Amino acid sequence: MAFSKACFSFIVLIVLLSSTTSLAHPGFGWGGKGGPFGGGSSGLFPGFYQYSCPQANDIVMSVLRKAIAKDSRMAASLLRLHFHDCFVQSGGPNWELPLGRRDSKTASLSGSNNNIPAPNSTIQNLISLFKRQGLNDIDLVALSGGHTIGVARCVTFKQRLYNQNGNNQPDHTIEKNYFLDLKSVCPKSGGDSNISPLDLASPAKFDNTYFKLLLWGKGLLTSDEVLYTGEVGKTIQLVKRYAEDEGRFFEHFAKSMVNMGNISPLTGFNGEVRKNCRLVN
């Protein structure tokens, strides 16, 4: 069941189930590097399961409805899985997603550590990492908007509260009241597994509030807030644009998800279609 682990339409359905509003964006290309977005040709296409498993989307939708009804955080978890899987294997909107990606026969801890952005990443590190994967500033900021849902553990943002630059001082970009709220959740000693929403205003809704919070100094992770404070590339302008125009964010997010799914996928005789998603065959 390769389509249930790797970059398949469950991400589309996750976003739909996590939002109160969704926009259809038919006609997005899934090959080449057209337009302002990154990503490249991959050999994937939307009708991959048309004949071999025509009910695939309905099956996935049914399973997801049940899973997210049981635990709303599942949507964010699967969105994160898509990000991890696509980056490592290379080395509210709705969209048509190219299918056919096989599962890998191996897993790489070092690949994950080297290719997935750390929560304390600088803007320079983020831009460089995305560029290495064939993605650009638009992809970086739009995909970061996936943090409109989900939570993060205290250990991922504690440094910002107590020792951001190795001088036992907090990150001065955090809004004062938000800083105090975070300290109550994440004490200086202990509490590393305590959680806080990535989007404190609407943590269970896929919208553009994440970007509005960045403008107010209320991004949870360093890698969130530097999109607005980093002063490198076009990220500041993009944060402002998405904060003002939710439709444009949805449009760019959909396109960038396709781009990310096209990062060096395993197709044809490469990889495998797993019988059990948790195990290699």
TrEMBL record:
Sites where the protein binds Ca(2+): T148, D199, D207
Domain Plant heme peroxidase family profile: 76-281
Binding site for substrate: P117
Cofactor binding mode and count: Binds 1 heme b (iron(II)-protoporphyrin IX) group per subunit.
InterPro entries (UniProt xref): Haem_peroxidase, Haem_peroxidase_sf, Peroxidase_I, Peroxidase_pln, Peroxidases_AS, Peroxidases_heam-ligand_BS, Secretory_peroxidase
Gene3D superfamilies the record matches: 1.10.520.10, Peroxidase, domain 2
Keyword annotations of the record: Calcium, Disulfide bond, Heme, Iron, Metal-binding, Oxidoreductase, Peroxidase, Signal
Alphabetical GO biological process terms: hydrogen peroxide catabolic process; response to oxidative stress
Reactions mediated catalytically: 2 a phenolic donor + H2O2 = 2 a phenolic radical donor + 2 H2O
GO terms of molecular function: heme binding; lactoperoxidase activity; metal ion binding
Cofactors, names only: heme b; Ca(2+)
SS bond partners: C154-C186
Protein family (similarity comment): Belongs to the peroxidase family. Ascorbate peroxidase subfamily.
PANTHER family: PEROXIDASE 72-RELATED, PEROXIDASE 9
Protein name (database record): Class III peroxidase
Species of the source: Populus alba (White poplar)
Origin organism lineage: Eukaryota, Viridiplantae, Streptophyta, Embryophyta, Tracheophyta
